[in-house]
Amino acid sequence: CSATSSKVLVICNASAICSGSHNNVNLAIHRGSTLVGGKKTVTLGDSYGYIINNSLVYLDSPSSSDAITYSLMAGDDSDDGGNIHVNKGGTLTSEETLNNSHIVLMEILA
Q1: 28-87 tens-digit pLDDT
Q2: Does the pLDDT value for residue 6 go beyond 80?
Q3: How far apart are CA 102 and CA 79, in angstroms?
Q4: How far apart are the C-alpha atoms of 89 and 101, rounded to whole Å?
Q5: What is the rounded average pLDDT of the residues 99-110?
Q6: Whole-model pTM?
Q7: Hey, which residues does 54 pair with through a beta bridge?
Q8: Cβ atoms 4, 65 nearer than 8 A
Q9: Strands (DSSP E) found in 1-110
Q10: How far apart are CA 51 and CA 12, in angstroms?
Q11: Distances in whole angstroms, Cα of residue 57 to Cα of each of 14, 18, 61, 88
């Protein structure tokens, strides 16, 4: 950020494939290794091959003029041993195209 009083608008679009039951998949925005907000639980159901296409928006106040790294984290809330593949690309079926995930950051000066 250019000033410690700046805010950062974080806009994420998550695209992933899930295998296993994965009743609940947690998505969250992190600054460095710290959860800062935008946490969202996506309820999927009991099946294989769900596609997640969800958006998260968060207004952060990092209080820093240093370079900042933001990331989108995904985790299995069901702990069923399945997998979550973020940014896998390609298609699951002929009707379902997977997109890449995106993070857009906008600095808002105070």
Answers
A1: 889 998 888 877 777 665 555 566 678 889 999 988 888 889 988 887 766 666 677 777
A2: yes
A3: 26
A4: 10
A5: 86
A6: 0.77
A7: 14
A8: yes
A9: 7-18, 24-31, 34-43, 50-60, 70-76, 84-86, 91-93, 96-97, 102-108
A10: 16
A11: 11, 22, 13, 22
